[in-house]
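Priority: medium. Attachment 1 of 2:
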C-alpha cells in the first residue's frame, strides 16, 4: 500500500496512512431504504412475497466512470479549496497531464481498473474498498473505525437515576438484566428472520437495493492478522450463542433453543443471572484479553497468535477464540459505571463509544450491545464488513419491538428454559508479557479517548416539515448549515465528506459526496457579509442546495470522485509509476481528501443517536438525523490534537446557523408576500 503521511500522533492524526482510502471514517450513511418493519414507497404485499436476497440478480454492477468525467468533477470540487488562481492552474496542469490523450498515465491505470472490473465477480470496488479502507489499516479500530449508537431508554423500565436510585459502581442490577434480555431476544428474532430470508428486501422508491451487508450482521468478527486483517462470518449462521462481557470476563452464553428457535426473555435473563453469579464468585479475575482488541492491529495480531499457538493453554485459547468469533454478537454488562456519566445522555454516550479505557469490550465483534447498570443501552459497531445504515435498520426493528410490546415477553416464558447449556467462562492463561500488553493497551485507549471531545444536541425549533415547506431538500439544507457553521468559526475552506449510498448496485456500499462546492463556498462567504441583501442570501442558499443535490445524485449513481480515484491509485504498482501519476502528486489532491468535516445523515433518528470520530486531527465528525419537527446531531473533535477545533463551539455554531438561516428565509418569504 502506498502511504502519504500527515501530522502523526494518536487517534485521528495517525490516519495519514489511510490516505489511499480517502480518509474514510465510519460515517453513518443516509438511510434511504425501507427498513425491516417499514415498506414506504413500495407495496407491502410485494415485499412480503420476496425473500431477503430475491432482488440480487436484478442489480446492475457498479460502473467504472470515464476518466475524463471524473477529472472534470474533481477539478470542480477542488476549485473552492484552491484559494489562488496559481494553485488552481497548478492542479489543472497536473490533471491535464494525467488524462492527456495517448500519453497520460491515467489511461493506463484506467485500462487496468477496467480489466480488474472484468475479473471481479460482483464489483470492481468491493475488495479494493474492504482492503484499503479497512483490513490493511494497522492503527487501532478502537474509536478510529468503530462507531456508536445510544438507544432511547426502555419505555417500560426507564433508567435508574437520582441519588437514591442509581446503582453504585460495581453493582449489577435487575433493570440491567431485564433490558439486556429483551434486547437479546429482539436481536435474535431479526437474526432468525435473516437466516430464513424473511426480512423484506429494501427499496429506494421502486429501485431494489443490495442486501449483501445483511449477511455480515451476525456471527461476524474482524480477525487481527498480518500483514492485513480478515473477516470471518457465517450466513445463515448456525450459532446459538452470544458472548457476554462482565468485568472483562468473557462468557459463552446460549440464547437460542436446540433447534435455533428464539426463546423467552425469562430464559435469557436466567442465563445472564448465572453469568453475574459466576463473575461475582471469582476469587480473582482473569486478564482482560478483550482490551487487546483496542490496540494496534499488528500488536494484537501477534499476541492473538501467541495465545493460539505458543501458550501452555493454546488448545483452550483456540476453543475460546472459536466461540468468540462465531458468536452471534457480544453483550457487555457494565457494572463499573460512574453515576455522573450514566444519566446525562450527553455523557452516557461515551460508554457506548469507547468506555474511556476500552474495558469490558471485544472491539472485533461486528455488534456489541452495551447495557449499563442503570438500564441505559446502546451499541458499539465494528465498521469493516458493513455500513451503519444496515445495523441501523436492525436497531429500528428491535427498538420498535421494545416500544410496541409494552414490556411483554414476545415468546412464552416456558420456551427454552430446560434446554440451555449453562454459561461457560472462557478462561485465559497468559504470560507476563501479555499482561503488560493488556496494561499498555488500556493506557493507550484511555489516552486516546481523553483527547476526544463529543457533544450531542437536540434542535427543536424546526425539522424536515419546515424545511420542505420552504422548498428545500432537508439533507442538502443541513449540509449548508454545517458549511456555514464551519465558516463562521474558522473562516477557511472546508473539504467535506458526506456519505452517499451506492446500494442500488450489486454489493454496493458508499461513495463520497464532496459537499463543499463552489456554490456552497459562495453562499457561506456572502451569508456572513452584513452587506448582502436577504434575497441574495436566500438565492445563494437555493443555488448551493441545488448543486449539492446534483452532487449527491451523481455520487449515488456511481459517478462520484473519490472511489474512482481510489481504484486508479490502487492500480499503481511501484514508486516509479507513482511519480507518473501527476494528479495524485498535486498538493491539492492530498488536501482535498483530508476531509475536515466528516458528515452523515441517519434520519429520522427516532430510536437512537449515533456518532463517530473526526477523520483528521484538525477536523470534526458530525452525524445528524432530521425528524419532522426537530434535528438530532452529534459532533466530535480531537481536543488534544488540534488547537483550533472545539466540538462544543462547533455544535453551538451549527445551532446558530440553523436559526440564522431560518430567520433569513422567513424574512425573505414575508417580504415577497
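Attachment 2 of 2:
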Amino acid at each position: 500500500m502506498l502511504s502519504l503521511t500527515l501530522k502523526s500522533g494518536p487517534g485521528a492524526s495517525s490516519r495519514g496512512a489511510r490516505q489511499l482510502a480517502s480518509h474514510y471514517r465510519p460515517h453513518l450513511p443516509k438511510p434511504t431504504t425501507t427498513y425491516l418493519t417499514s415498506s414506504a414507497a413500495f407495496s407491502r404485499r410485494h415485499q412480503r412475497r420476496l425473500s431477503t436476497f430475491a432482488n440480487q440478480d436484478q442489480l446492475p454492477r457498479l460502473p467504472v466512470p470515464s476518466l475524463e468525467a471524473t477529472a472534470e468533477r474533481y477539478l470542480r470540487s477542488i476549485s473552492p479549496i484552491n484559494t489562488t488562481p496559481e494553485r488552481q492552474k497548478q492542479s489543472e496542469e497536473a490533471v491535464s497531464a494525467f488524462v492527456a490523450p495517448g500519453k497520460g498515465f491515467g489511461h493506463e491505470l484506467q485500462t487496468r481498473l477496467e480489466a480488474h472490473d472484468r475479473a471481479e465477480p460482483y464489483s470492481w470496488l468491493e475488495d479494493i474498498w474492504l482492503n484499503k479502507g479497512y483490513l490493511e489499516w494497522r492503527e487501532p479500530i478502537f474509536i478510529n473505525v468503530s462507531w456508536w449508537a445510544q438507544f432511547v431508554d426502555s419505555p417500560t423500565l426507564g433508567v435508574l437515576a437520582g441519588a437514591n436510585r442509581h446503582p453504585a459502581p460495581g453493582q449489577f442490577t435487575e433493570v440491567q438484566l431485564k433490558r439486556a434480555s429483551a434486547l437479546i431476544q429482539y436481536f435474535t428474532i431479526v437474526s432468525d428472520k435473516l437466516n430464513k430470508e424473511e426480512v423484506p428486501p429494501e427499496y429506494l422508491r421502486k429501485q431494489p437495493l443490495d442486501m449483501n451487508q445483511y449477511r455480515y450482521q451476525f456471527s461476524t468478527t474482524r480477525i487481527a492478522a498480518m500483514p492485513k486483517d480478515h473477516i470471518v462470518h457465517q450466513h445463515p449462521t448456525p450459532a446459538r450463542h452470544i458472548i457476554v462481557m462482565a468485568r472483562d470476563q468473557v462468557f459463552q452464553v446460549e440464547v437460542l433453543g436446540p433447534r435455533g428457535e428464539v426463546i423467552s426473555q425469562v430464559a435469557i435473563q436466567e442465563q445472564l443471572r448465572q453469568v453475574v453469579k459466576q463473575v461475582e464468585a471469582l476469587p480473582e479475575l482473569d486478564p482482560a484479553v478483550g482490551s487487546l482488541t483496542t490496540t494496534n492491529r499488528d500488536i494484537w495480531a501477534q499476541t492473538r497468535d501467541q495465545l493460539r499457538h505458543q501458550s501452555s493453554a493454546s488448545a483452550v485459547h483456540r476453543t475460546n477464540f472459536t466461540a468468540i468469533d462465531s458468536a452471534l454478537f457480544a453483550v457487555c454488562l457494565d457494572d463499573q459505571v460512574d453515576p455522573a456519566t450514566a444519566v446525562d445522555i450527553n455523557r452516557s454516550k461515551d460508554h457506548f463509544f469507547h468506555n474511556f479505557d476500552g474495558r469490558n469490550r471485544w472491539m472485533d465483534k461486528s455488534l456489541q450491545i452495551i447495557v449499563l447498570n442503570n438500564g441505559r443501552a446502546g451499541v458499539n459497531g465494528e465498521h469493516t464488513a458493513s455500513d451503519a445504515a444496515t445495523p441501523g435498520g436492525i436497531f429500528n426493528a428491535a427498538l420498535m419491538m421494545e416500544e410496541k410490546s409494552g414490556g411483554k415477553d414476545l415468546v412464552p416464558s416456558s420456551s427454552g428454559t430446560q434446554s440451555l447449556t449453562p454459561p461457560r467462562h472462557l478462561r485465559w492463561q497468559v504470560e507476563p508479557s501479555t499482561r503488560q500488553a493488556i496494561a499498555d493497551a488500556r493506557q493507550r485507549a484511555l489516552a486516546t479517548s481523553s483527547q476526544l471531545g463529543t457533544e450531542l444536541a437536540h434542535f427543536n425549533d424546526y425539522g424536515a416539515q419546515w424545511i420542505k415547506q420552504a422548498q428545500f431538500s432537508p439533507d442538502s439544507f443541513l449540509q449548508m448549515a454545517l458549511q456555514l457553521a464551519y465558516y463562521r468559526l474558522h473562516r477557511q475552506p472546508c473539504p467535506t465528506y458526506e456519505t452517499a449510498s451506492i446500494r442500488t448496485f450489486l454489493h454496493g456500499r458508499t461513495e463520497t459526496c464532496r459537499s463543499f462546492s463552489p456554490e456552497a463556498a459562495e453562499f457561506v462567504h456572502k451569508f456572513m457579509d452584513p452587506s448582502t441583501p436577504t434575497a441574495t442570501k436566500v438565492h445563494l442558499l437555493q443555488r448551493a442546495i441545488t448543486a449539492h443535490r446534483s452532487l449527491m445524485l451523481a455520487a449515488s449513481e456511481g459517478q462520484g470522485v473519490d472511489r474512482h480515484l481510489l481504484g486508479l491509485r490502487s492500480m499503481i504498482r511501484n514508486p516509479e509509476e507513482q511519480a507518473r501519476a501527476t494528479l495524485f502528486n498535486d498538493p491539492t489532491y492530498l488536501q482535498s481528501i483530508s476531509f475536515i468535516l466528516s458528515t452523515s445523515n441517519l434520519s429520522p433518528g427516532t430510536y437512537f443517536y449515533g456518532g463517530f470520530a473526526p477523520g483528521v486531527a484538525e477536523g470534526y465528525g458530525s452525524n445528524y438525523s432530521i425528524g419532522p419537527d426537530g434535528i438530532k446531531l452529534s459532533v466530535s473533535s480531537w481536543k488534544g490534537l488540534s488547537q483550533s477545533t472545539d466540538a462544543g463551539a462547533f455544535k453551538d455554531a451549527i445551532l446558530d446557523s440553523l436559526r440564522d438561516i431560518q430567520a433569513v428565509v422567513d424574512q425573505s418569504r414575508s417580504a415577497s408576500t
